[in-house]
Amino acid sequence: MTETEHVSASAAAPDTAPDTAPGTDRDTSGDIAARARAVAATAFMVPMLPCADVDEMADFWTSLGLTVTYRQRRPNPYVALELGGIVLHYYEMPEWDPEQSHSTCAVAVPDTEPVHDLFAAGLRERFGRLPVTGFPRITRPRRRANNAGLSGFSLIDPAGNWVRVTHVVPSGTSGDADGDPDAAAGPAPAGTDVAPWSATPGGGPVARALDTAVVLADSQGDPAQARKILAGALRRAAGTAAGTADPTATGVPVAELAPALAYLVELCVRTGDPEAARSAHERLADLAAADLAPADRNVADVALTESRAVLPVP
């Protein structure tokens, strides 16, 4: 490996030469803003993220499907990676601590599922299961109440940087990919009498708690508070079923209860409480084993599969 390796002209080093020779007068006539907009129309921004070892980042991301397009060891270690329009650049910082990282970037895509599937496959190959704690880790695509209900997930890389993959509605369309015309509307402005957007329209307390928990844990990185809110809502719902062995007798629709229990399992794992995670999983398993309508059966089975994927092996 040479000290500087150019693999692709599309991944230029961070510093480039000016496009006007020194001493040459630029044309200052005309509409400066219009010319700037014309240039910006074909521009793209590149996140430059810190890490302790650029080779570690290259090894990690290539295992998830990206390709190294530029690598430099001297004078400053630097690496660039790409997958289509997903471009990530890293520079080394001595003694970088992932726990102290607050760096982040967003990847806007028309569909989050294929990207998550690709990253998840690479992570499973690398670690044997999906990592949901430590560095790296990944969340599942979930509809976000703080993003107009559009799906999103986060991959926190080995350096602690948050790569946030979010669904955006393609230009010229309305609503989300499922045909929800309100999905792109976003939360109501402050001070209006319009109810805030919910990821589960018409949902009850458990659904609203799940919406809040997803924002807290997956967007803001606070799984402990998310767990507290979601567990409280589920505990109150369970109180309505006291004295009965029927796992569906909570008054909460299975379509809301099952995903909430599955997410509680994940939150318990993420907060280092495997015993509580197994307890929530058992409750979900009881729900899935009940006599359910076909639609509810499908929801419960999907939730149970998600729960098993993150549940620690005893």
Quickly list its features.
314 residues; alpha+beta; 5-stranded mixed beta sheet; 10 strands; 15% strand; globular; lyase; dioxygenase
C-alpha-based Rg, rounded: 23 Å
Taken from the alpha-carbon principal axes, the silhouette is globular
Cα separation of the termini: 44 Å
Count of runs of 4 or more consecutive helical residues: 8
Describe this structure in words.
With 314 residues, this protein is an alpha+beta fold. The protein contains 8 helices and 10 strands. Helix 4 (205-219) packs antiparallel against helix 5 (223-239), helix 4 (205-219) runs parallel beside helix 6 and helix 6 runs parallel beside helix 8. The longest helix is centred in the last third of the chain and has 17 residues, at 223-239. The radius of gyration is 23 Å and the shape is globular. Mean pLDDT is 83; it is low at 174-197. This is Catechol 2,3-dioxygenase-like lactoylglutathione lyase family enzyme. It comes from Promicromonospora sukumoe. GO terms for molecular function: dioxygenase activity; lyase activity. Residues 1-29, 169-192 are annotated as: Disordered.
Summarize the structure.
With 314 residues, the protein is α+β, with helices and mostly antiparallel strands. The protein has helices spanning 32-40, 54-62, 112-127, 205-219, 223-239, 254-270, 274-289, 294-310; strands spanning 4-6, 48-51, 67-72, 78-83, 86-92, 104-109, 137-138, 142-143, 151-156, 162-167.
